[in-house]
Amino acid sequence: MKEYELLVDGETLSRAETEVVNDPSSNQPVATIALASESDVATAVEAAESAFERWRTIDPVTRGHYLRDIAAELRDQKAIIAQRHTEETGRSLSDSERSVEYAAEYFEYYAGLTHRINGETVPLSHEEFDYTRREPLGVTGHIIPWNSPLLLGSRSIAPALACGNTVVAKPAKLAPMSILELGRAASDAGLPDGVLNIVSGSGSTAGEALVTNENVRELTFTGSKQVGLHIRELVSDRLIPLNLELGGKSPNIVFADADQEAAADGAVKLFTNAGQSCYAGTRLFIADEIYDEFIDRVVSRIEEMEVKRDSDETDVSALISPSAQSEVASYVESAVESGGSITTGGRIPFEEGNFYEPTLVENVSDNAAVSREEIFGPVLAAYRFDSEQEVVERANDTEYGLYAGVWTTDLDRANRITEHIEAGTVTVNNYASPIPQVPFPAYKQSGIGSEYATAALNHYTKLKNVRMKVDRTLR
């Protein structure tokens, strides 16, 4: 059993109130974590405030060196961080090692942009000079989800630090260890005290204390729509930037002229991390003329996937908790009750652990719960379609708009469909994962703001305009 404490102002703080972290693949305890109180969160915010003036005035290039050192430290500590990531999420060790590498890449990417946070000059009359500058916001609050904590935490922490902000992060209670290990790695890399503070705890206590603290100048949250709307309500009397990523019900559209092998590979990417991904292509729309043939390809790939209790041997990892497993099972049961059929999967394979078989559901209506609600599990629903007009209307018939996939070899069609799909990202012939260099915006109820790329630099800074009268007369 590992023991984790809070990280505040460069110091680890133990607390009498703790909670056990369980391994989702066995539901056996692997660690205890300290639970932050409201006063602990206030102390962390105070520490971040104290560090802010020092951190914001550091030369941008030097700030970039700090971020590169964090990336190097993450790689040096990859073995232990990946192990903790696997223990808290149930993902394979190789998958967790990739997560550590991705996290390091975020810090490296934004390290290279610290000196590119530029303003501009604005031409005015001969007697005036006008320029803009981008300045850090102050203390930023980051509420990090459990499904991919290290990667999703790094993608917001890295740009916030790069812009000169200080950070208070609250990892998910179900999976806090890898973020706490990130905090340790940052300290080992020499990051000044108070610049990055981590307060583990519950959403109702530590999370709300962070959201409602008036000295927090920005909030980033990834999670459910319900919690995101609650956060927006809590800060409704404060005009601060919000970055809310609130889920998706992403369509993956396969036309008759598509490369079926590649499209089938793209369709089963849903089962990565047991479908616990906000951008997963959970609704598979297949052109009627190739439907049967294409479904056979997808089914053969699903049935080749092995579900094993050993996280390093299974192709489909465990769900995060017993309640998540029960919820996924109930969605599949409701699909059958509403007239759908289970083509493959649909069972809990073991009594121990939170596993669920990769499942394909057919013959469900667009109004069924499995078609409309974010399941966050290894469940794929397939649908037939006849025309571009029809599939676009059905694909857009959702409150979400985060991600979408289009498979076609017709360039004109690809451009037509991507123009009309209501999603922040539309991939063509490649259901690709987000990467640091490209933005990750959201439409509709999937959120507001955008992580990734240079868009994050604008989010984590405020714009200032300077306009001055100048005397250009030579003396």
UniProtKB/TrEMBL annotation:
The active site is at residue 245. GO terms for molecular function: oxidoreductase activity. Keywords: Oxidoreductase. Residues 17-466 form the Aldehyde dehydrogenase domain. InterPro entries: Ald_DH/histidinol_DH, Ald_DH_C, Ald_DH_CS_GLU, Ald_DH_N, Aldehyde_DH_dom. Homotetramer. PANTHER family: ALDEHYDE DEHYDROGENASE-RELATED. Belongs to the aldehyde dehydrogenase family. This is Aldehyde dehydrogenase family protein. It comes from Halobium palmae. The lineage of its organism: Archaea, Methanobacteriati, Methanobacteriota, Stenosarchaea group, Halobacteria.
